[in-house]
Amino acid sequence: MEGNATLFDVARVAGVSLATASRAINGSARTVGAELREKVLRAAQELDYSPNVAARAMKRGHAEVVGMIVPDIADPYFSGIASGVMKAADEQGLMVSIASTRRQSEREAEYVAGFRRQRNRAVILAGSRTTSRAEVDRLRAEVERFEAQGGTVAAVSQRKLPVDTVVVENRQGARALAADLADLGYRDFAVLAGPRDLLTAKDRLDGFRAGLADHGVDLARERIVNGEFSRDGGYQAMEQVLAECDGVDCVFAVNDVMALGAISAIRARRLDVPRHLSVAGFGDISTLRDMSPRLTTVRVDLEKLGRLALEMILSSGDGVPRTHREKCQVVLGSSTPGPKLASRRSAARG
Amino acid sequence: MEGNATLFDVARVAGVSLATASRAINGSARTVGAELREKVLRAAQELDYSPNVAARAMKRGHAEVVGMIVPDIADPYFSGIASGVMKAADEQGLMVSIASTRRQSEREAEYVAGFRRQRNRAVILAGSRTTSRAEVDRLRAEVERFEAQGGTVAAVSQRKLPVDTVVVENRQGARALAADLADLGYRDFAVLAGPRDLLTAKDRLDGFRAGLADHGVDLARERIVNGEFSRDGGYQAMEQVLAECDGVDCVFAVNDVMALGAISAIRARRLDVPRHLSVAGFGDISTLRDMSPRLTTVRVDLEKLGRLALEMILSSGDGVPRTHREKCQVVLGSSTPGPKLASRRSAARG
DNA sequence: GTCTCCTGGGAAAAGCTTTTCCCATGAACG
DNA sequence: CGTTCATGGGAAAAGCTTTTCCCAGGAGAC
């Protein structure tokens, strides 16, 4: 009973050859007589046999493991996606390895290489990719090596790579948000835009600007402030807006945690949200749903993104990359009740 | 250049035997002549050789992977711990596999078995364990099998298993919190206590009660309401408190997300925190730090917990389980400014 | 009745590394 | 100068599974 039973033991107990035992257990193309199969399975049960995945991986060339790469697992956005991936993987009997780049996007390629060495069956790249050409090229090269080795790759919110991709409709979402805010009467916007080379951030900014343009609202260049994609980035960008921009009605932060930082910066100035300034975010992070005022944001079903990515991997196509577009939905909260009465009145008069 | 170079290729190019090549690359006990080692390393570099981890795992009996089991990766508490584990693992060149039980604690044993099959080098059990005897026994049995196979196991916030453990001083933290709240003048507490069979929840409740007792404050049994360890659990438990308990000053929720739910429940009644009721939590989740009012809570350094767990695994002891106690620290926020003026005055008078 | 084909079982190789065991060379020691 | 070690290199086995190839027996066809 010490150690682990091997397939050899099972075969011996069942009185068959290794080949038959393997075929009975794995259900290969070759059929096994019902009687023998029964015997093998009983022996396996009795010995509490579990296959040695290392040996299997060596022989098959890949392990039943999917690797996942996220910028930061502690960010609720990515842990939400990871949660969806893990749930779907569990249903398929797959293990999930997670690597966090800690927002150093150049490490993504490294981790893909690492997963290749691990002979993982698939890799899911989550998170907002960089727009830096050199990095994308390096990543693409690693992805190709991974695929050359027989692996499958999928991405979430990333359409720069020739792989199956779950795209969050960042543009559409931000555009709808802008439309709704304009409908509420806001006219003087500022945007906390995240890093300049982050695709997700860029898409949300572009969409937002487009939505405003639809309503004939212009977004001045100096009202767009770049910053880190994090809570602190939002705080600092907001400080800059407060210092430099006059007459701002409503601030759009390209993600929820930036919005959170922005609200803190506003309060640090002893101003109130939404009395003095309205704020909107993007993502609808669950821990923020109970915040008061309720943050206006754009809901993304994070778990669904993860699940879709895994499903794409399993149904891996005939080589031509597919794209699944996932819409998102505006959630209006009390953080954007409409512009201050004063300005609305003056607008009505004018 | 197609496929991957094997150690055999390296040996051939370097003009040495497999044994020498392996020894040069892995730095075994046997020394390799400087000249040959140099040749081997150059050949490996040239061929872009990377060892086949599956073959290595098979031979060595374990893979350089640590498995981690959490109740819910989307919960910021656990993703924080996971983040610490992953950071430390990365520094050691280890991969991390994560499994989420989705709060079904009976699945923990299953996942330990899964990691055993994967021949993972170690397992980290994170999260608040059940007090159910049968489940603990089953888990202990699986842990022993894992260790029998040569693996190491560590736990975070769990002292029911004979393994290296990072213990969060839940009792101490809750006790200090109770003391501070009592010092502020609160006397009429209610506790949203989480599931009855959850050790973490129980410890926090016990510590809180002890802290109150230190100040001569009694916590009546009917002021303790059990509920799920989640946001919704907090909401429901709070509803029950609002419906059934009179004269409550201050509510202690045994974790932050429950506190969040509680605050929502209070607001749903059109009451204000902290004007009508004060609320405290436990955990100091980062996304909640910007909430207004600032939630009074007990800070736990989540990343540190994860890092410590991994370090314990690497320095795996001589068999006798070690315990690292991690203190936590009370953070007083505006959600508990002290009891309402009215009651404080009457207390002063009486 | 013989030949061919198909089904299902088994032996053995392959997959890649690590490690044991053996061997040769040169140094140290008596 | 002969014996004994220590050092470093190589051949080969082990670790466990999957899969190819071979083979035997039975069924069907002519």
Automatic annotation (TrEMBL), chains A, B:
Xref: SUPFAM superfamilies: lambda repressor-like DNA-binding domains, Periplasmic binding protein-like I
Keyword entries, A-Z: DNA-binding, Transcription, Transcription regulation
Domain HTH lacI-type: 5-60
UniProt cross-references to Pfam families, sorted A to Z: LacI, Peripla_BP_3
Superkingdom, natural source: Bacteria
Keyword set includes Transcription: yes
Record InterPro entries: HTH_LacI (IPR000843), LacI/GalR-like_sensor (IPR046335), Lambda_DNA-bd_dom_sf (IPR010982), Peripla_BP_I (IPR028082)
The protein, known as: LacI family transcriptional regulator
Organism: Lentzea cavernae
Gene, per the UniProt record: lacI
